[in-house]
Amino acid sequence: MAATNDSYRADEPDWQRGKQRPRAFAPLNPNKQDPHQRQKLRGIIFDVDGTLCLPQNYMFKEMRAALNISRSVDILDHIHDLSDVPDSTSSNAESQSSINPSAPSEEVLSHSTLTPAPAPTSPRARAVAKIRNIERTAMTSQRPQPGLQQLMAYLSSRGIPKALCTRNFPAPVHHLLDKFLDGEVFEPIITRDSEGIAPKPSPEGLWSIAHAWGLDKDIDASGADLQQSGTVDVDPLNLAKRYLGSGLIMVGDSIDDMTAGRRAGAATVLLANDENEHLAEHECTDLSIRRLDELIDVLEKGFQARK
């Protein structure tokens, strides 16, 4: 049911009147007035590979070759679908020889906390070990994106919370932070190993971050009130989660990043390069930049998604 004319106030922003909340934020510059009365930016979530560091896309070819899957198959979905049942005793020796013996015991790549960790000799565990070894090798050649330190220092100076949501496992993430962003705070950090959280393009990671930041406490309307605010046939929980994500920006370089951001209700920023620039016109992309520090001027003046 749409809002009635009786509830309209000319001096009230559209998003406070219950209409679709815009993907727009007030200027971070405290000296700049905002005649549009845009909402306050509550935090920014970053992808890691290809976003904080330069792309290492060769990894994906190596991973697919190691797993013997085609480009059309999602790597994490493939691993999740593999059996976590231990091999028979007779095949244990052969199975172990295919895994780097120096690799630590592997954790489950799971969408549910109810799924037990796979045995070290299961098909899933061997697949996990293969791609982790590829990631460990690649992380030694990580290089920071241009403008990385400048943007992070700016966000810290403006008091904007920062978090990470990545399909990587934790080791490459912490390697990058320790090497290039020592002292910068990113909390929480959601990786593919975060239990009970489906990886992007699922929006669950973004919602989890918003919850950790306490943004759910800002939702003071009931589900029924939210439905009456202009959205029809929408589950109240999903609607609340979209309101939960609407104070956020997701910055990434892939369709998974843009899709996760849009599904969560967040604004999206594509860090474009020669290989992904076609995503700048994708329906899930709100803004495209070529350098991370380009975002500083955007945020200072006020973020506005393209129409």
Fold topology:
Elements: E1 24-25, E2 43-46, H1 58-67, H2 75-81, H3 92-97, H4 123-139, H5 148-157, E3 162-165, H6 170-180, E4 189-190, H7 204-212, H8 223-228, H9 236-245, E5 248-252, H10 255-264, E6 267-271, E7 287-289, H11 294-301, E8 303-304
Parallel strand pairs: 2-3, 2-5, 3-4, 5-6, 6-7
Antiparallel strand pairs: 1-8
Helix pairs in contact: 1-4, 4-6
What does this structure look like?
Helix content is 34%, strand content 9%. It is an alpha/beta fold and 307 residues long. The protein folds into two domains: 214 residues, 3-Layer(aba) Sandwich (Rossmann fold); 82 residues, no CATH class. The strands form two sheets. Strands 4-3-2-5-6-7 form a six-stranded parallel β-sheet. A two-stranded antiparallel ribbon has the order 1-8. β3, α6 and β4 form a beta-alpha-beta unit. α4 runs parallel beside α6. The relative contact order is 0.17. The N terminus is likely disordered. InterPro entries: HAD-like_sf, HAD_sf. It holds the Pfam family Hydrolase. It comes from Exophiala aquamarina CBS 119918.
Summarize the structure.
This protein is an alpha/beta fold and 307 residues long. The chain contains 11 helices and 8 strands. It holds the Pfam family Hydrolase.
Features of this protein?
Rossmann fold; disordered N terminus; two-stranded antiparallel sheet; 34% helix; 307 residues; 2 domains; alpha/beta
- Low-pLDDT runs of 5+ residues are 1-20, 89-115, 220-226
CATH class of the largest domain: Alpha Beta
Please tally the β strands and state the result. 8
Backbone shape: globular
What is the terminal separation in angstroms? 25 Å
Number of helices in the DSSP assignment: 11
Query: What proportion strand?
Result: 5-15%
Structural class: alpha/beta
Task: Trace the largest sheet across and list its strands.
Answer: 4-3-2-5-6-7
The CATH architecture classification of the largest domain is 3-Layer(aba) Sandwich
Q: Order of SSEs, N→C?
A: EEHHHHHEHEHHHEHEEHE
C-alpha Rg, in Å? 21 Å
Protein name: Phosphoglycolate phosphatase
Pfam families: Hydrolase (PF00702)
Biased composition (Polar residues): 86-103
Region (Disordered): 1-38, 85-125
